[in-house]
Structures are given as structure tokens and as C-alpha cells.
User: What shape does this take?
Amino acid sequence: MLSNKTIENIKKTIAKYPKKRSASMDALMIAQQECGYLTEEALREIASILDISTVQLNEIAAFYTMYNKKPVGKYHVQVCTNVSCSLLGAEHIVEVLSKKLGTKKGETTPDNKFTLSEVECLGSCGTAPMMQINDDYYENLTDAKIEEILKGLK
Ligand code: FES
Assistant: This one.
């Protein structure tokens, strides 16, 4: 169940748009910031506020990798595996992270500390390969850089 504060924030965001449904992506992100991921109940509540069907809202949530459909760890490690990053070794980056974190892509470590995900282009193609951990970008990744970044998170 969304908090009153989250509902209020969604309604404030809706006021910025000519149509309620135009605030769908913002509303999903506001809810995700509160809950960590988008539950079925949250989707139903948001859809109701936006006056659209849950199916329509679910289509948006399912299309974009930035929306979490299940719980994620304290650190959500999202590796871009789109074209530029792939050409510069994104698959290797995923393998290195998988080994170091002890989890497979799409999964969370048993202590709920790390979730490793593959995501679509994060708009930082010029600094590929790259990843996002929570709200921060880490670019021009190498094995050594990954080692250093993970040390800073433990
Ligand atoms: S392809 Fe990886 S950031 Fe664009």
C-alpha cells in the first residue's frame, strides 16, 4: 500500500502534465522510490490514480528495465549490455561481477546486499562499458575498476 506522502507526490506530478496518464513513468518511479520495487498492489493503486487500467500501466513497467518488478538488494548493480557496451566487453563485465558478487544475473545475493541485472542502454555509450549502481554511474569499466568500486560498497 502506497503511503499518503507517495500518493501526494504522484498527484503533484500529475498536475504538471496535460493528461493524468502522461505522468505514468514519473508515478512509477515515485512509487518505486518508496517501495524499492513495484508490487501488484502498488501498480493497481497507481493505475487508479492515473485513471488507466492496471494492464496499461503494467505494459510501461514491463518495457523499461529501470522499473524493478521484484525486490532488489541494497546495491542494485545494473550493467548495460546494449550495443556500445557489448562491443566493449559488457558480457565480460557481467561475468566478473557475477563471480565477485557470487550471484547470477537477475538474482540477489542471499544477504540481500547485491542484485545483478543486465539493462538496456543507459545513455552513456561514449563511456562504455558502464554500469549503474543505485543512482550512480560507473564508466569505462575494467576489472581493476570493478574491484575498486566493490571495495567501496562493502
Ligand atoms: S550502450 Fe551502454 S550506455 Fe549506451
